[in-house]
């Protein structure tokens, strides 16, 4: 009914390995976002890890404004990182999926 079970298990292991390799690679993909005329810049990885935050000194006097800009920049960067992460992991998982009846949603 399912064909070669050991072959399918091997394919699943390959898919899992591809996903893990993709996760490691996504640690090296950097996403930069800037707001407030480049006065606030953030860098995150595609795995959604914050790598750098740069704030222009002109914003240091207004704590509330700075917090708002940081939230805006981080949310923008994390959204882009999440989109890249999902796309890349979906491709990695799909490429190694065995042909299992009823699992067409991965094709």
Describe the structure.
The chain is an alpha+beta fold and 107 residues long. It is built from two helices and three strands; from the N terminus they run αβββα. 51% of the residues lie in helices and 17% in strands. The chain has a three-stranded antiparallel sheet, with helices on one face. β2 and β3 form a beta hairpin. The two termini are 20 Å apart.
Gyration radius, rounded: 20 Å
What would the average pLDDT be, to the nearest integer? 86
What is the count of β-strands? 3
Poorly predicted ranges (pLDDT <50, ≥5 residues)?
A: none
Strand ordering within the main sheet:
1-2-3
Structure class: alpha+beta
In what range is the share of β-strand residues?
A: 15-25%
Main beta sheet: strand number and arrangement?
A: 3 strands, antiparallel
Record keyword descriptors for this entry.
3 strands, single chain, 107 residues
Set out the fold topology.
Layout: H1 5-26, E1 30-35, E2 40-45, E3 50-55, H2 63-95
Antiparallel strand pairs: 1-2, 2-3
Helix pairs in contact: 1-2
Quick overview of this protein structure:
This protein is of the alpha+beta class and 107 residues long.
């Amino acid at each position: 009914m399912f064909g070669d079970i050991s072959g399918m298990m091997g394919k699943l292991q390959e898919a899992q390995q591809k996903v893990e390799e993709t996760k490691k690679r996504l640690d090296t993909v950097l996403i930069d976002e800037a707001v407030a005329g480049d006065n606030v810049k953030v860098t995150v990885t595609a795995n959604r890890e914050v790598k750098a935050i740069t704030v222009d000194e002109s914003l240091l006097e207004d704590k509330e404004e700075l917090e708002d800009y940081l939230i805006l920049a981080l949310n923008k960067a994390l959204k882009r990182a999440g989109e890249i992460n999902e796309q890349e992991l979906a491709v990695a998982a799909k490429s190694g999926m065995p042909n299992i009846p009823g699992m067409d949603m991965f094709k």
